[in-house]
Amino acid sequence: MPAAEDEARPAVTLVGDQWSPECSVLRTFLTRSEVPYTWLRPGDPRGAQVLADHGVAAADTPVLIDEAGRVLHVSRPRGLEPVAEWLGLHTDPGGGAYDLVVVGAGPAGMAAAVYGASEGLRTVVVERWAIGGQSGLTSRIENYLGFPDGISGADLADRARRQATKFGAELVLTRQASALAARDGGGFTVGFADGGSVAGRAVLVATGANTRTLHAPGVADFVGRGVYYFSALTEAPLCTGQDVYIVGGANSAGQAAIYFSQCARKVVLLVRGDSLEREMSTYLIKQIEAIPTIEVRTRTEVAGASGDTHLERLTLRDTRTGATENANATWLFAFIGAAPDTAWLGPRFLRDADGCLVTGNDIAAAGAAEPAWPLPRAPYHLETTVPGVFAAGDVRAWSARRVAGAVGEGSMAVMLVHAYLADR
Ligand SMILES: Cc1cc2nc3c(=O)[nH]c(=O)nc-3n(C[C@H](O)[C@H](O)[C@H](O)COP(=O)(O)OP(=O)(O)OC[C@H]3O[C@@H](n4cnc5c(N)ncnc54)[C@H](O)[C@@H]3O)c2cc1C
């Protein structure tokens, strides 16, 4: 039985190496899923003792051990679903047809869950990872209405989870939607990558955008071993007193630089463009200018990474002259934008050049673009070219790409789903 969503989760022990990519992913997942845990390295006396007590060899880590002594060996190919199941997280829909299937548990999807469930729709949210989406990566959101002192992404995600479950929304974690098909007699089936599916009368695609990755020789070899894309908050305590490199010139990189400056000896912000002004909000630039331990290096890009068991060196390139230099570096965090992944939806959806879903009036504005809107009535504002399938948040073309925008669209989508269902 899955644990009730508002129950405090029992603590677990994670034994794994600092430079194990699997261990890094697990720490992020446990943190993002609000599971209290103690992390021990296999080489430390306590870690070695715990492994010996449970008959586990250091080579077989990472492992999770719960208070009852159950041991879960974690391996990358099996993904996070066995971990989520072992932890008692909800990984399967309750069954039957839902009024609304929401894909994605970022701000847009969670807002739809709150409004859908509180306004009488049987609502399920399917999330491939953990609640919070991109906003869950953020140390401090300062521009979201109602939080004058800022709020961390983790706190916002936890509030959303409690609010959605309070109203009866079902949250299904670690399941990736990989197919969408119309059902005979109406409605849709959303298929999962690892088998299984869920059916709903309407679907909201709130899958946001995926973090872009750095393409430079060697970088891919050190992901989870010094190079990180989405686990900055979990790794931060390990960076205390050390130098941290951050790549990116937009708000997310600026927030990360400020966050790491609280623990790192020095933060080097690598920006390809001429200045921060082009992409970063003024309030963040001012904060960065006031922190002496942040060095901003404009016109600089990562040209390579090297090391042994973990990242040890970066090659940096001057984007104007092409000149390169080496820098000793153990920590590199990249915040270089995000792109939507909508390929799984198939060819019936109109997308813009970036792959974002075109909705509502923008479908007509796209003129003769194919696929076209198929019905005599006009599409609802957030409706895609597949009637009954809506899109909200960063995955939608022309969205604001902000938490408030995603929350607003997710909430509005529920009103439009009501109108669509009433029409039928
Ligand atoms: C580091 C960082 C800092 C930011 N700071 C701010 C800020 O200060 N203020 C601000 O307003 N905005 C900020 N943003 C932007 C903001 O977080 C996004 O605009 C917002 O999260 C978009 O919400 P969303 O729900 O549309 O998508 P996302 O947050 O991207 O959530 C989408 C969710 O869908 C899931 N998903 C994707 N595909 C599938 C699938 N096939 N099956 C199941 N689940 C799937 C993902 O795992 C994810 O959880 C920041 C972004 C980042 C990365």
Layout of helices and strands, plus pairs?
Layout: E1 12-15, H1 21-32, E2 37-40, H2 45-53, E3 63-66, E4 71-73, H3 81-87, E5 97-103, H4 107-118, E6 123-126, H5 153-166, E7 170-172, E8 177-182, E9 188-192, E10 197-205, E11 210-211, E12 227-228, H6 232-235, E13 243-247, H7 251-261, E14 266-270, H8 282-289, E15 294-297, E16 300-307, E17 311-318, E18 324-328, E19 331-334, E20 338-339, H9 361-365, E21 389-391, H10 403-423
Parallel strand pairs: 1-2, 5-6, 5-10, 6-7, 10-21, 12-19, 13-14, 13-19, 14-15
Antiparallel strand pairs: 1-3, 3-4, 8-9, 9-10, 11-20, 16-17, 17-18
Flavin-adenine dinucleotide (FAD) binds next to helix 4, helix 7 and helix 10.
Q: Describe it for me?
A:
The chain has 424 residues and is of the alpha/beta class. The chain has 3 domains: 12-87, 3-Layer(aba) Sandwich (Glutaredoxin), CATH 3.40.30; 97-210 and 339-423, FAD/NAD(P)-binding domain (3-Layer(bba) Sandwich), CATH 3.50.50.60; 219-336, FAD/NAD(P)-binding domain. Helices cover 24% and strands 23% of the residues. Strands 5, 6, 7, 8, 9, 10 and 21 form a 7-stranded mixed beta sheet that branches. It has a 5-stranded parallel beta sheet with strand order 12-19-13-14-15, with helices on one face. Strands 2-1-3-4 form a 4-stranded mixed beta sheet. Helix 4 (107-118) packs parallel to helix 5, helix 4 (107-118) packs across helix 10 (403-423) and helix 7 (251-261) packs parallel to helix 8 (282-289). The two termini are 36 Å apart.
